[in-house]
Design brief:
Helix 11 crosses helix 12. Strand 9 and strand 10 form a beta hairpin. The chain is of the alpha+beta class. It starts with 10 loop residues before the first strand and ends with a strand. 22% of the residues lie in helices and 24% in strands. The radius of gyration is 29 Å and the shape is globular.
């Protein structure tokens, strides 16, 4: 095979790879590209209702990148927390209600049972939090914990709401809670190009009185301390009485105290106000907010306190401060007001909090709004020019493009570059970042395992914040180890201000795999950066300390001749306090081997037992099937919460055969609970790309890792497929769940590219499922090089865009590729290799495998599901018995397979999976308008599940030999009922047309 139609050699000099962002059109639902448009429209007569309508700006024709990524809702819904946008820059943030500004909290559905709260461990209300990174308090306890350990608790504290900017016209005030009857022509937008939130609407407070308001909110990308709120008013009548009230609203400041002189006027600036708060229990840390209002259009005058006509409905919180202005519109009836807010805390600006916050405001006022805005948008544009993920195509691929961009955007919005120093560049990322106080705003393994790899591949300067955080808390981890009489370091499961053991974040007898997660991220950072100074000063101290911990923690079993671990919890948190947990032990083997490698790099002689333990750690497997057991005593009768054993293939790369890894994937994919968190399926997709010999399950899993978790209108992922507490296993999902965004991103940076961290070369193993024909991962970083990697159906182009100092960069193509081997690229050169595909079919002669399904069920805008989340009809033809189509109800439901061309059909095969339907019928035809019955019947159980058997079940199968062959392009399968009789439909694991 040639590397390119124009080049016999795989290596050549080339022009930059040109990639195009999608043309955005208004869309209601997506179907396959059929070539029978009229018939398809007739066939799919009733598209499902949509989620909150998403309007993409510039609905027709070519659009600029910035406009293309502006997502807009026209639905005013103040009670839907999923629909709230936010602004953040990795240091400060502000969640924004439907009104476009101000403080709002959403009453729980049933607070007595925590239904509708923010979830464990705080169980407080969801509210429009304003946050500053690292602002953790110290309190005795929280509503929820794991189990008692010393140290108290350290949830994140929040700041006064800084977006509040009220307008009062002739005595009527636009505020949070304004009667919805007064609001029309509503639009709220979030740009996932530059992070700007805009809310515009017509406000009609009285008969014959109306005006248009537009709120714009920004968390400045360049200046970490700066927030901006702009209010533009048009349609004001001459002589109208207008007042503007700017508020720093203490109602939003949770878990804080207000120190002496905590609010007031900044000296020598009579219209500049400030509010200061301290996290509860932390007297030596203070955060200051400083704000000043400037009238950009029209005129304004600051009014003395107590002046009539100003908004008086302010909270009585001690940290609330306001400043009122009288406003005079321009001759055209317009008034534009800009509120600049400076924010700084002691964690980053000790002793300079007030001066830093004030300086940010003063500089912004001096520069002016247009200059401040341009600096912000230019910085975001530069990020996207440096690195991005670009997916070609329309329909679902357009939606996947938005999910990919949104995932990168939400991650970057919640982290700053590691080089920015203490309090800025070493905060890591909480599961919900700075978007909410979900999971108390603390740092979990989510950062190291789920968010770090994708960021490190594209934006390593930002990923460094995650490794910096672990180095920053290394001293505390070493003290934790001493507390429990072990060597090295012992990191708490969740980390806040101090990194000590707490009830929410226990250190001992819990999720020890965190130690491996941290160490592996250090390895990944070194592999891509090759920064020896970092390794010597930060990386090695963390890596070696974790190795020392494991050398002291494992126990030797003389009867097996292997090392064991005891009383621990793997990622599957449904199973606590187990022995020899697979992900933990396999991780020990990997990180100890890495530690020995790093010792060699640094010329250090490591303890000999590191290698011994690495080679002899216990990883249990079923003696019959060979499937890795999640822990000692694991059986098949309980659900698995989330990705666990499947993590041995990726990211651990624990030594296994392909067959072993595939058996693990298929078994645990079927065993995983539907109520687990939203990052699991991304690893299924990555593993399937690496392991599957046939089919396109990697694509099924890609959709399952994104579409069920994405929430309109802003492509924010939730932790659960359902946000309804009473139907999702009793979980109040974290939101915005950046962990799932990080996992989905890895499906694209690591899954289809086959990118893995290697110390010797930029390593790729490109493979695509049949459904994806073209996508680019732009700006992948390795050593001093920046790569653009474009995968098409036939070939993958690996272009070294640039290097520093003219260095050449080694590239390795995996052994499975026809052009496997080692290459060296210089800046501007490209390497072209074949894009791998799976071969053959799971069922011999299957004409349907990986063809198209005529259904809108995979659309991100589908809010009235026809299937169990993620259990798409396409799963029935993806060449994997571990994925299934399962309708949402047990009434008669159908799917239609498009074979693409007219085919001769002589037989059918069904693998019904674990929950067969009661009956089925099949019709087929050359057209969807002329389908004839070819088979039907009742389903019998051919292979009932055998309890306590750790094996990939064969599944219940039905084979049908047609009386005579038929010509057909379209095949309709209808199923009714299910053996489970739980109200849901039956399953179809694989359907073959032969």
């Amino acid at each position: 095979m040639k590397g390119s139609a124009a080049h016999d050699s795989p290596l050549f000099d080339a022009q930059p790879v040109r990639v195009h962002r999608p043309m955005i059109k208004m869309r209601c639902y997506q179907v396959a590209n059929l070539g029978e448009t009229q018939e398809t429209r007739l066939f799919l007569q009733s598209p499902p209702p949509l989620r909150t309508m998403v309007l993409f700006l510039a609905l027709i024709g070519l659009v600029s990148p910035a406009a293309a990524y502006v997502l807009t809702s026209t639905s005013f819904n103040r009670t839907a927390w999923e629909a709230q946008p936010y602004v953040a820059n990795g240091y400060i943030s502000q969640r924004i209600p439907a009104e476009g500004m101000g403080y709002y909290e959403i009453p729980p559905i049933n607070e007595s049972v925590d239904d509708g709260t923010s979830g464990w461990p705080l169980f407080d209300r969801r509210f429009t939090a304003a946050m500053v990174a690292g602002f953790y308090d110290q309190q005795a306890t929280t509503s929820g914990t794991n189990f008692d350990q010393t140290g108290g608790e350290q949830p994140i504290s929040t700041l006064p709401t800084w977006s509040s900017l009220y307008i009062t016209v002739d005595g009527a005030t636009y505020q949070v809670g304004t009667d919805t009857a007064q609001i029309s022509n509503y639009q709220q937008s979030l740009s996932i190009q530059n992070g700007i939130v805009s809310t515009s609407f017509k406000w009609s407070p009285a008969t014959n009185v109306s005006m248009t308001l537009n709120y714009t909110v920004i968390a400045h990308r360049v200046v970490p301390n700066l927030g901006v709120v702009r209010l533009d008013v048009t349609g004001l009548k001459a002589g109208v009485n207008v007042t503007i009230t700017s508020v720093l609203d203490g109602a939003g400041s949770w878990r804080t105290t207000t120190p002496n002189a905590g609010v007031g006027i900044v000296p020598n600036t009579p219209d500049t106000v400030y509010s200061a708060v301290q996290p509860d229990g932390i007297a030596n840390v203070t955060a200051y907010e400083v704000s000043r209002v400037v009238f950009a259009t029209g005129k304004g005058t600051a009014l003395p306190r107590g002046t009539g006509g100003c908004f008086t409905g302010l909270s009585s919180n001690a940290s609330t401060i306001s400043q009122c202005y009288s406003g005079s519109p321009s001759s055209t009836g317009t008034l534009s007001v800009v509120k600049y807010v400076g924010i700084a805390s002691s964690d980053a600006y000790a002793g300079k909090e007030l001066s830093t916050a004030l300086g940010a405001v003063t500089h912004a006022v001096s520069a002016g709004y247009n200059s401040v805005l341009k600096e912000h948008t230019d910085a975001w544009d530069a990020l996207w020019e440096d690195a991005d993920v670009i997916i070609s195509g329309t329909g679902i691929f357009e939606e996947l493009q938005y999910a990919a961009r949104a995932s990168l955007f939400h991650l970057l919005s919640n982290v700053r570059q590691g080089s920015e120093g203490h309090g800025l560049g070493d905060n890591s990322i909480a599961p919900a970042g700075l978007t909410s106080d979900s999971y108390a705003g603390q740092i979990f393994w989510d950062a190291d395992t789920w968010m770090f790899p994708g960021l490190n591949a594209l934006f390593p300067l930002y990923a460094e914040s995650i490794t910096n955080f672990r180095y920053r808390q290394l001293g505390a981890a070493q003290e934790n180890a001493k507390l429990f009489n072990v060597s090295g370091s012992l990191y708490p499961w969740t980390a806040g201000r101090f990194g000590n053991c707490t009830g929410v974040g226990p250190c001992y007898n819990y999720e020890y795999h965190l130690e491996n997660d941290i160490s592996l991220a250090q390895y990944q950072y070194w592999a891509s950066s090759q920064n020896r100074t970092w390794l010597e000063t930060k990386g090695w101290p963390v890596i070696s300390s974790i190795a020392e911990f494991w050398a002291s923690q494992v126990t030797f079993n003389s009867s097996t001749g292997k090392y064991s671990t005891l009383n621990e919890t793997d990622p599957d948190e449904y199973a606590n306090f187990r022995n020899n947990a697979a992900f933990t032990n396999a991780g020990i083997s990997v990180v100890l081997k890495n530690a020995v490698y790093f010792a060699g790099v640094l010329g250090i002689t490591p303890p000999s037992n590191w290698t011994t333990i690495s080679n002899k750690i216990t990883v249990l497997s079923d003696p019959t099937s060979g499937i890795v057991l999640e822990y000692d005593g694991f059986n098949s009768t309980t659900d698995v919460k989330q990705a666990d054993v499947v993590l041995l293939t990726y990211p651990l790369e624990y030594p296994q055969t392909t067959a072993q890894g595939l058996a693990d994937l298929d078994y645990y994919a079927l065993a995983t609970s539907p109520n687990g968190p939203g990052m699991t399926y991304s690893v299924f997709s990555i593993d399937a790309s690496a392991l599957s010999p046939v089919g396109c399950a990697s694509y099924t899993y890609l959709l399952s890792s994104s579409q069920p978790y994405s929430r309109a209108p802003f492509y924010q992922f939730s932790e659960q497929t359902s946000d309804v507490y009473t139907s999702n296993g009793g979980t109040n999902p974290a939101y915005t769940f950046l962990t799932a965004h990080g996992g989905f991103l890895q499906s694209l940076t690591h899954g289809f590219t086959g990118y893995r961290s290697r110390t010797n070369a930029f390593y790729l193993d490109p493979i695509l499922p049949d459904q994806i024909s073209n996508y680019t991962v732009k700006g992948m970083k390795y050593r001093s090089g920046t790569f653009d990697v474009t995968l098409t159906t036939s070939q993958t182009i690996i272009r070294l865009r640039s290097t520093s100092g003219g260095a050449s960069i080694p590239v390795e193509i995996a052994s499975a590729n026809a052009r496997a081997g080692n290459y060296t690229l210089k800046a501007g050169q490209s390497l072209v290799v074949p894009t791998r595909h799976t071969n053959g079919t799971l069922v011999e002669g299957n004409l349907a495998q990986c063809k198209s399904i005529l259904a809108p069920e995979v659309s991100f805008t589908n809010t009235s599901p026809s299937v169990i989340p993620g259990q798409y009809a396409l799963a029935a033809i993806d060449g994997s018995n571990a994925t299934s189509w399962q309708p949402y109800t047990n009434s008669s439901q159908f799917m239609v397979v498009d074979l693409q061309t007219l085919q001769t059909v002589s037989a059918l095969h069904f693998n019904w999976g674990g929950n067969p339907p009661i009956s089925y019928s099949v019709t087929a035809g050359a057209s969807t308008m002329s389908m004839a019955a070819i088979a039907s019947g009742n389903v019998t159980l051919s292979a009932p599940t055998v309890p306590d058997t750790i094996t990939v079940n064969v599944g219940n199968v039905t084979d049908v030999k047609l009386a005579s062959s038929v010509k057909a392009r379209y095949v309709n399968v209808t199923i009714t009922g299910s053996f489970a009789a739980d109200g849901r439909g039956g399953t179809v694991a694989e359907f073959a047309v032969i």
